[in-house]
Structures are given as structure tokens and as C-alpha cells.
Amino acid sequence: MKLFSSPASPFVRKVRVLILEAGLSDQVEEVVTSTTVLESAPDLVAVNPLARLPSLVRDDGPAIYDSRVITRYLDHIGKAGLYPEARLWDVLTLEATADGFIDSAVSIAYENRLRPEEIRFAPWVDGQWNKIARSVKVVNDRWMSHLKGPLDMGQIALACGLGYLDFRHDARNWRSGCPALADWYAEFAERPAMKATAPG
Fold first, then answer.
1. What residues does the GST N-terminal domain cover (predicted)?
2. pLDDT value at position 144?
3. Which of 9, 25, 126, 153 has a CA that sits 20 to 30 A from residue 78's CA?
4. CA gap 136, 120 in Å, rounded
5. What's the longest Cα–Cα distance across the chain?
6. Which fold has domain 85-196?
7. What are the distances in angstroms from CA 139 to CA 41, 46, 105, 188?
8. What is the C-alpha separation between 30 and 115, in angstroms, rounded?
9. What pLDDT sits at residue 116?
10. Cβ count within 10 A of residue 65
11. Where are the chain's structural domains?
12. Average pLDDT of the chain?
């Protein structure tokens, strides 16, 4: 299989961490791809009409895309158990929360990097950050017992999202008011799979 990827993408990182945690490294070849909303990579367009990362080219079927689709697929073939049936709806909700605030964080990064300064819309950026701050605070206040449980995809998605906030938006300090989550992340970030996939 081939994974179209970028080392800076938090959505790609979710997949890369799962690959390492599930022991699937020998089954997936990474194809590092440079693409933006303004200039889509032709090789990526050929497998994914949305031209978004990550995209996974399978040996036995068409390419699949969206990080949640790919992680479910790889978890299934690797029998990794990162979507446990007993906690499935909690895992999916936590992953959706992480993906949602990652989407807002990536949108802010694109606004700052691709849009000329004179037409950037600060209230829109602030609105995106408010979504991030609310999400992080809710996880800190309501999800810590889940985060202390066995490894699952919700935890991986959350950690990759928090890592991206450090990478692109460190000055905004997501840790403020979230000490329990900050402590959890500091420990989780030491996992070998997280260290091996750190952006930078």
C-alpha cells in the first residue's frame, strides 16, 4: 500500500502513528507529497479528486481517503483493536472532536500562510480558535478518565491534534486552564510512535 503524506499534516500523523502502533510499517510505503488548496499535486489528484492528505492506495481496491476512513481500515487489517467495540462511540466522538479542532487549526494556518495580509479576516480566525479552545477545555473537563484508559484511536487523534497546536499555534497556549490534559499529553507525547512522527 502507498500512503500519500506530508510530515507537517496532523491528519497524516494520525495514520502514521497508527501504522507504528499496529506494526504495519512493512506494509505501507509513504509517498511524501507537496500540495495546497491553491496548487494540487497531480499525482494526488489522480488517486483522490479532493487532492487531500492523507490518501491510501490499496493493493486490492481503489484509493481510500479521509484520515478516519484510513485509520479504521488499517486498524481492521492490522487487528490493532484501536476501535474497541465496548467503547466505540466514545472513541469515535473523541476522534471527531480532535479532527474538528484540527480542521480549525489547519484553516487558521492556511489563512495566515496563503491569504495576503490585507484580506485576512481576524474575526474568522478568532472564531476558529474559539472552537479549538472550547474543544480542548471540554476534553480536559470531561474526558480524562477515558484518556487514562487503554490506547485507542481517540487518544491518538487528540495527541496528534495537540501536537499540531504546539507546532503551528504555540503562542496561543492551549495548555492554559487545562492542566490535566497538559500532563496527559506530556506523557503521551513520549510514546515512540509519537516521537517518530513529530512534525518539524
1. 1-82
2. 98
3. 9
4. 25
5. 51
6. Glutathione S-transferase Yfyf (Class Pi); Chain A, domain 2 (1.20.1050)
7. 35, 38, 16, 15
8. 29
9. 87
10. 21
11. 2-78, 85-196
12. 96
- The three cell numbers locating residue 167: 507546532
Tell me: cis bond preceding 42? Omega within 30 of 0 counts.
no
Q: d(Cα 125, Cα 134) in Å, to the nearest integer? A: 14
Rounded Cα distance, 62 and 173, in Å: 41
| Fold matches, 2-78 and 85-196 | no
What spatial distance separates the first Cα and last Cα of the chain, rounded to whole Å?
Answer: 25
β-pairing, 64-65 with 2-5?
unpaired
Distances (CA, A) of 115 to 58, 93, 158: 35, 32, 28
> pTM of the predicted model, to two decimals?
0.95
Hey, what CATH class is 2-78 in?
alpha beta
User: 3-class SS at 58?
Assistant: coil
Supply the pLDDT for residue 38: 80
Residues 6+ apart with CB under 8 A from 10: 102, 105, 106, 160, 161, 163, 164, 199
CB 2, CB 50: distance < 8 Å: no
